[in-house]
Amino acid sequence: MEYTPPTASETGPFRFDNSFARLPEQFYARVEPTPVAEPWLIKLNRALAEELQLDVEALERDGAAIFSGNRVPAGAEPLAMAYAGHQFGTFVPQLGDGRAILIGEVIDRNGKRRDIQLKGTGKTPYSRRGDGRAALGPVLREYIVSEAMHALGIPTTRALAATVTGQPVYREEILPGAVFTRVAASHIRVGTFQFFAARGDMEAVRALADYVIDRHYPEIKGDGRPYLALFKTITERQAALIARWLHVGFIHGVMNTDNMTVSGETIDFGPCAFMDTYDPKKVFSSIDQFGRYAYANQPAIGQWNLARLAETLVTLFDPAADTAVDLANEVLTGYGSVFQEHWLEGMRRKIGLATAEDGDLERIQTLLTLMHKGNADFSLTFRQLAACVEDDASDAQLAGLFQNPEALLPWLADWRGRLGREPRAPDERAAAMRAVNPAFIPRNHRVEQAIDAAVRDADFSLFEALVDVTSMPYEDQPQHAAHAEPPKPGEEVLQTFCGT
Q1: I want to staple 127 with a disulfide (CB 3.0 to 4.6 A). Which of 98, 137, 231, 486 is the partner?
Q2: How far apart are CA 23 and CA 25, in angstroms?
Q3: What percent of the chain has pLDDT over 90?
Q4: pTM, full prediction
């Protein structure tokens, strides 16, 4: 008989049904959050809470205690998940949730299973030498950026709440502590499979694969090769996801295998950022000294990470080792064309094209080269291009974004010729372009300003404003026009750091 969890009103704010906790014990460590001194709730994402079918009024009343870990809600089964991972190419056989605790799972109003996880709630068996805590700044960054990604329409983990703990954390300096409440389709990663494969526990690998199929991809259960179908589906999801990152100028910053989900969601917003001026070699992470995770390297790193996943699953693809390897390589080889298809389709939409022509790839690459040479702002260039569809006079404003405006003019002429071969009303085309080219992204200098005000002065007004503005990224919002502007001299943020 199928399990029917109780209603939220019967159990408190949450209606838990904790399937991961029913897996064998080697998948996790059961652990309770460590209480904190004086928690208070910075922000509750009411819309998401309602989507998750939570008791919003109870969370507004008791959220500080619940989201800080001081009160474990009824039905929760707190645990830290086990996983391994390649970090900057070096394999670490045991990582796991060192500062995060999965308190349980809920079924949202669309019938989808979602994890509720607290980040920054104290030590777990996987903390190694860490304190298991999180500083306020990284908590606010993850809240801002993950919700902005959702508003942009990109698959991502979500922010349910941010809470101050009332006690300090000790890093290079003393900082206020905080806890981030994250929601995900699941927190299962490539590194979760690596954890068991590295120990030769193929029974656990198979059990995990079966769980992922049941939870995320039940449509492939009847496939003749379900584990190969699982790998192919994850590969296609990642190719599409990374293409969408590139469409908005997003740089993840730390694409380790423990930061790649099998659900196809963006996860872990540590040293991430959105580009201002376009540079394919742009890196923000303070620890990525060799550019491994630079903007343009992200597609290839995605394929590399997927190859590591294939290594954990390959014996499940076919009893014959050679056949199994050939099947895995066929999927991995196809990754490039799947990514290119998604990327090119999205870039066509960004420049106002609804049909395909052979020269489109070169046309797009030429624009990107001009943007790079001209130090043009990534987001503003594509947003302003929509105005050029409706009014030729807007060409000068677009060209003004480039250090060498004259260099853009031949491209604009070629682009208009291409548009002419695809009859479409200018207002319709411009509206379609604005629907995929955001006016507002969480620009790094704005994020840092919001963090600085909160950390130094307990002023959360900039944080609230940035969350509000980026919740409607494709709307013009003239009253918030300043948030669309790139950083002024002296405001540019060149490095970001891990921290949650």
Answers
A1: 98
A2: 6
A3: 91
A4: 0.95
Closest by CA to 41, choosing from 110, 174, 139, 146, is 139
* Gyration radius of the chain over CA positions: 23
d(CA 37, CA 115): 26
**28 phi/psi in degrees, rounded to 5:** -165, 175
CB burial of residue 319 (10 Å; 0-12, 13-18, 19+):
exposed
pLDDT in tens, 89-116: 999 999 999 999 999 999 999 999 999 9
Our answer to whether residue 258 is catalytic in this structure is yes
Q: DSSP labels for 308-368?
A: HHHHHHHHHH-SSHHHHHHHHHHHHHHHHHHHHHHHHHHHHHHTT--S--TTHHHHHHHHH
pLDDT of residue 7: 46
Q: Which two tokens stand for residue 208?
A: 């995990």
Considering 55, 97, 115, 258, which one is annotated as catalytic? 258
Angle CA(274)–CA(139)–CA(437) in degrees, nearest 5?
25
Q: What six digits make up the tokens of 105?
A: 């799972």
| Digit-coded pLDDT (tens) for 30-68 | 999 999 999 999 999 999 999 999 999 999 999 999 999
Spans of the chain, pLDDT less than 70: 1-11, 495, 497-500
- The 10s digit of each residue's pLDDT in 124-154 is 999 988 899 999 999 999 999 999 999 999 9
Backbone phi, psi, residue 213, to 5°: -60, -50
Report the candidate in 230, 237, 389, 368 with the shortest Cα–Cα distance to residue 312.
Answer: 230
CA distance 271 to 284: 6
Would you list the DSSP string of 318-331? -SSHHHHHHHHHHH
Query: Is 160 exposed, middle or buried, given 0-12, 13-18 or 19+ CB atoms closer than 10 A?
Result: buried
Q: 3-state class of 223 per DSSP? A: coil
Closest by CA to 295, choosing from 246, 365, 255, is 246
